[in-house]
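Researcher: Next sequence.
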Amino acid sequence: MKAVIRADASSYIGYGHIMRCLTLAKELKKEGVNVNFLCREDEGNLIHSIENNNFNVFSLPGDINAGKDAELTAQIIADKTGNPDFLIVDHYCLDISWEEFIRPYTGRIMVIDDFINRRHDCDIILNQNFGIKAQMYDNLTPQNCRKLTGSSYILLRNQFREIRKRIKPHSGKISKIFIFLGGADPTNETEKVIEAVKLIKNHEISYIVLVGDSNSHRKEIESICASMPDITFCRQIYDVAGLMAETDFAIGAGGSNTWERCCLGLPSMMIIAAENQRILVENLAEEGIIVNAGWYEDVTASTIASMADEIIADKNKLKDMSRKAMEIVDGEGVSRVVREMLN
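Model: Next structure:
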């Protein structure tokens, strides 16, 4: 069986699409599926990272529209990969027009989506976000489309599933805080949070700051962290789950790390750093799973510090957030998705 994944990463859109597709690719590979990637050569792409994970990547130019993307994708599939059994698409800029063009070149099409805002010609649609219901896609997908919706299908790397087995119930005490605002963090929320650290009243707390290679501010952030003895700076590490397991609280954005934190029962404060994160963050906050700091333009260092001081003092709230987070993400999502695909 063969599969082709069409997804991108860049300094602007971040790592999330590629990271969850890599997770899916590895699970498919374990089942004997031959997986290839098609990615644009945008600044901050993760093509080398995909190749380092032993997957072949066919490159597309970075400055093309959806129509040209479809043409080149079809050409590569026809010339290089042969018609795959599955074409997996994880891309906000590609819709039914792209999918209809590609349809003759593949057996089935699977779309990974976060927005319920455009029509698709697909056989499976996956929206792993909390609170999403299958019927939301009734008017956007073919009648026979299989709809995989909700947090039970979240695509998480195996390291989180394994670390989760060793996680103990949260004590309600915070001694170390994990700070990660996404692989790219184009609005530099990381530096804002570091400024907030200087204002947090409890000085017995240490911090881990993680940035990705696509973060254009990484050198400045590293320099600031070096001047603060309570902060450990980390860049582009593999064992994120092990790093997070050392901490008691997190400050992050509404990207894919949200689900990693939930899987490990790590209570968190979340900044809405992009419009596609808004509904997710608001839904999680409404259920008491996270604390919503608000839209990034409205959030200041003093806001973050004030909210952190309040959370640190509320042990029962921290325990409750941790328990609720673990209930919605069990780390088995990728296995469920692959079973659905192969069936």
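Model: The chain has 13 helices and 13 strands. The radius of gyration is 20 Å.
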